[in-house]
Amino acid sequence: MGIITPGFFGRGRKAAAGLPPGQHLTEDFPVLSAGPTPRIREDDWEFTIATEHGVTHRWSWAEFMALPQEEPTVDIHCVTSWSKLGTGWRGVSLDTFLDQVESSAEYSMAHSYGGYTTNVPVADLRDGKAWVVHEFDGKPLAPEHGGPARLLVPHLYFWKSAKWLRSLELIRQDAPGFWESNGYHLRGDPWREERYW
């Protein structure tokens, strides 16, 4: 297994109303990674979506930045029990990408620079529920938080919001990614405490 970075053990517990069960509020932004932090230059970054039919769609950084931008403000919940409320991001809705892709696949596998993977049902990426983001709190996304761009799926535990996003593979059958293969739940709904199998 890779390196586990600081943050898995938290810094105190502050309860707050409206949090999913088993969660505590944090004011900071813990850095959690299962390996070294990749350093990807924007000029080298590319995002692809591969369909179940073998068709691959590609976006360079410039093409990504030219797409309609949104600024979601969302709560995020880590499986290690911290929650951070009202986080501000900037990026492109997954709907914008998926509307350009012909697919009937019900599942996806997100792939990151560095080799990380996580599975996400396509229904959890559609209808304004997920983004590819490049800014956090008004600043370019730092590498330790997944920059230059990461997946943001805030209604699921945060391990589903793959850092250093490289590609999305659309697949017909669900399959476990990295943490799911190591005992984490296939979907990861924090309101149902879907932490582990």
TrEMBL record:
Classification via Pfam families = Oxidored_molyb
| The Oxidoreductase molybdopterin-binding domain, residue ranges | 35-179
SUPFAM superfamilies, alphabetically?
Oxidoreductase molybdopterin-binding domain (SSF56524)
CDD domains for the chain:
arch_bact_SO_family_Moco (cd02109)
Q: Which Gene3D superfamilies match?
A: Oxidoreductase, molybdopterin-binding domain (3.90.420.10)
Source domain of life? Bacteria
Query: What InterPro entries does its record include?
Result: OxRdtase_Mopterin-bd_dom (IPR000572), OxRdtase_Mopterin-bd_sf (IPR036374)
What's this protein's name? Answer: Sulfite oxidase-like oxidoreductase
Identify the species of origin.
Answer: Cryobacterium mannosilyticum
